[in-house]
Design a protein that fits this description.
By secondary structure, the chain is an alpha+beta fold. 26% of the residues lie in helices and 39% in strands. It starts with a strand and ends with a helix.
Length: 187
């Protein structure tokens, strides 16, 4: 039996929610995103961890031949995905996927049809179904993405400088040059 969890104020990382992502040859594409969950989101994180642990226990009971340590847990520290520079060290990440395109709404409940609004760094609430699996000799817990509600906020995940910062001196020189041209024209 799977469990549905609603996670509030998560960050969408590398979302593919309007176009299917083909991850393996020979398999159908899926709608995917990695979800960043802040450590400060303790109640949602605890509910998710409990649901995952429940599914791991079910797999361990029904497949005793599989060592518990080999049952895949989808929840990872941000450092395990090399995302600690973007998110910080107290974040957890989880990859989600679904065969059916999730419904996406904004904070007012209106359907979101513009893919540009569902971008890397979007802050959202999501509903996921936590489900154990045993396939091709491998066991683990997967998280199926159901629906997304965008908050309208975005977390700046760029761990590089902006174009304005990189070209500050050139922009300042260009502006001074234009002002000088205007001043000489008026003289």
């Amino acid at each position: 039996m799977s469990k549905k969890c609603v996670l509030k104020e998560v960050v969408l990382l590398f979302p593919h929610l309007f176009v299917e992502e083909k991850t393996r040859t020979g398999f159908e594409g899926k709608y995917t995103t990695t979800i960043g969950i802040a450590g400060s989101n303790a109640s949602d994180l605890m509910e998710l961890k409990d649901a995952i642990e429940e599914e791991i226990n079910k797999i361990a009971e029904s497949h005793p031949e599989i060592p518990r340590s080999e049952i895949r847990n989808p929840l990872m520290d941000s450092s395990e995905m090399n995302l600690e520079e973007m998110l910080g060290e107290d974040w957890k990440t989880m990859r989600t996927a679904t065969r059916q395109r999730p419904d996406i709404i904004d904070a007012d409940g209106d359907v979101v049809l513009n893919p540009a609004l569902v971008k890397h760094g979007a802050v959202a609430s999501v509903s996921v179904v936590v489900r154990g699996y045993f396939f091709d000799g491998k066991a683990g817990v997967g998280c199926v993405l159901n629906n997304v509600m965008l908050s309208g906020d975005y977390k700046n995940l760029a761990y590089r400088r902006s174009a304005q910062e990189d070209f500050k001196e050139l922009l300042r020189a260009r502006k001074a040059q234009r002002e000088g041209e205007r001043t000489s024209f008026l003289d």
